[in-house]
Specification:
Length: about 190
């Protein structure tokens, strides 16, 4: 939708054109909108939603909404369950986990489910492995309100710190091992 707005093709979806626009300009806008949508879709999705060569951008957009913006009770319940049972697998990179969580939040929002910031922040904190437990504890006993943005910032800072400290520990242990082996050689 944002790309269509940027390209000025949103009028073809909404079918609301500026008052003083010629028919040829309308036709160009419709063609541009259809092209933008088609080029934005993965080939398998395009094959699934495109039914004819004579379709309009509005028809294609409505089919996409029907397939991917299901607002049924079942879909909303499943997304809520996924939010509250979302867990980080061991060995998963923090950034991958945050990306998956943000995608889930976006899916919730597109289906019309509104969660407040504190609920989302707590869901993210509770989804983490024990490696990040101290962040959960520090947020829990903080006197400030918890927001999703604050939690994500804290996690990113923690991840950078862990990466930096991990590299220092690896280097230090390497020096220790080298030092011990050279001592062992001297003693022989």
């Amino acid at each position: 939708m944002a790309l269509l707005r940027r390209e000025g093709s949103i009028h073809a979806i909404e079918e609301k054109y500026p008052e003083k626009i010629s028919d040829s300009n309308k036709k160009n806008i419709k063609g541009d909108a259809l092209s933008v949508i088609q080029m934005s879709l993965a080939p398998n999705v395009l094959c699934e939603v495109s039914t004819s060569t004579e379709e309009t951008a509005k028809e294609l957009w409505e089919r996409l909404e029907g397939l991917y913006q299901d607002r049924s009770v079942t879909t909303r319940m499943l997304l809520q369950r996924r939010l509250h049972t979302f867990k980080m697998d061991l060995g998963t990179l923090l950034q991958d986990h945050l990306d998956a969580f943000n995608k889930l939040v976006m899916n919730l929002q597109t289906t019309g489910i509104k969660n407040d910031e504190e609920t989302l922040a707590c869901a993210l904190l509770f989804s983490l492995t024990s490696k990040y437990r101290y962040i959960e504890n520090s947020m829990m006993y903080s006197k400030q309100s918890i927001t999703l943005e604050k939690v994500q910032q804290a996690l990113n800072s923690c991840d950078v710190w862990m990466h930096f400290e991990g590299n220092k520990t690896d280097e230090a242990s390497g020096f220790f091992v080298r030092d011990r082996t050279s001592q062992h050689r001297r003693s022989k």
